[in-house]
Amino acid sequence: MSDNKNQFKKKGGLGRGLNALIAGSYEKKVDPVSAPVAAVNAIAEIPVHTVQTNPFQPRTHFDAEALEELAESIKIQGIIQPITVRKLSDDNYQLISGERRLQASKLAGLESIPAYIRQANDQQMLEMALIENIQRENLNAIEIALSYQRLLSECNLKQEELGDRVGKKRTTVTNYLRLLKLPPDIQIGLRDNKIGMGHARALINIADIDKQLEVYKRIVAEDLSVRKVEELVRQIGKENDTKPEPTKPEVSEHPQAGEIKRVESRLSTHFGTKIQVKSNAAGKGEIKIPFISVDDLNRILEILNY
């Protein structure tokens, strides 16, 4: 037992980084030629075909052109940052983080890839995958917000704990979570970089969804600045303050209309596209999931695990 301990070097804690999620993180260099089966808590070259995708992957959209560019870079320079996997059995691994690097490596025709090999249960995998993705610079605001929401709901974290885990102030976390209250069209626009975080934060302050969408369309059509949008929002607020109270409350056309809209919003956020849910008084109906290309269809099928 003591001989084995001498083979490992204890690493210092990384504070709020990924490795802080795993107590007692160790590292050991493994030569894949002399060691046919890679050791746990080590860095090793492992065959690309032995790595399964991560079922907890929080990212749902990968730019095809960016993947091609990364693949070309890998052909020339190789993999600079290893992926992270957990060992399921001998020569069988499951990805924790690094899906873009894995996909690009396959495109580049690599047979093996450097990997950190860890031991982790499903809960740890989800936390590691979410936090690793949150810390990436190219993650869009909606993906960050959804990752925060999953950490809160699926990992049973409180907002204070979440802020500590991701190294962000609680107000920052709250601002991202508020984005999920926006209509699906605006969330998709934010995801696709049609508007920025500043635009979205201003739109949240408009109580009426129709007004939100109206201003959103103006932002896209007229390329409005954040300052201009903030002025429009203040103007809308003043107009609402001067409006008289309605004499009669609005009555929903369908007794379940509110719940159906909430379901549509949740599904649209989950699939990253505008979902339509139709239902009649008898409770029968249909769900429509549109897609804009074959790649978009494949992305949706992956979410469905089809």
UniProtKB/TrEMBL annotation:
<dbReference type="GO" id="GO:0045881">
    <property type="term" value="P:positive regulation of sporulation resulting in formation of a cellular spore"/>
</dbReference>
<feature type="compositionally biased region" description="Basic and acidic residues">
    <location>
        <begin position="237"/>
        <end position="253"/>
    </location>
</feature>
<dbReference type="GO" id="GO:0005694">
    <property type="term" value="C:chromosome"/>
</dbReference>
<feature type="region of interest" description="Disordered">
    <location>
        <begin position="237"/>
        <end position="259"/>
    </location>
</feature>
<comment type="similarity">
    <text>Belongs to the ParB family.</text>
</comment>
<dbReference type="InterPro" id="IPR036086">
    <property type="entry name" value="ParB/Sulfiredoxin_sf"/>
</dbReference>
<dbReference type="InterPro" id="IPR004437">
    <property type="entry name" value="ParB/RepB/Spo0J"/>
</dbReference>
<keyword id="KW-0238">DNA-binding</keyword>
<dbReference type="InterPro" id="IPR057240">
    <property type="entry name" value="ParB_dimer_C"/>
</dbReference>
<protein>
    <submittedName>
        <fullName>ParB/RepB/Spo0J family partition protein</fullName>
    </submittedName>
</protein>
<dbReference type="GO" id="GO:0003677">
    <property type="term" value="F:DNA binding"/>
</dbReference>
<keyword id="KW-0159">Chromosome partition</keyword>
<dbReference type="Pfam" id="PF23552">
    <property type="entry name" value="ParB_C"/>
</dbReference>
<dbReference type="InterPro" id="IPR050336">
    <property type="entry name" value="Chromosome_partition/occlusion"/>
</dbReference>
<dbReference type="InterPro" id="IPR041468">
    <property type="entry name" value="HTH_ParB/Spo0J"/>
</dbReference>
<dbReference type="Pfam" id="PF17762">
    <property type="entry name" value="HTH_ParB"/>
</dbReference>
<dbReference type="InterPro" id="IPR003115">
    <property type="entry name" value="ParB_N"/>
</dbReference>
<feature type="domain" description="ParB-like N-terminal">
    <location>
        <begin position="44"/>
        <end position="134"/>
    </location>
</feature>
<dbReference type="GO" id="GO:0007059">
    <property type="term" value="P:chromosome segregation"/>
</dbReference>
<dbReference type="Pfam" id="PF02195">
    <property type="entry name" value="ParB_N"/>
</dbReference>
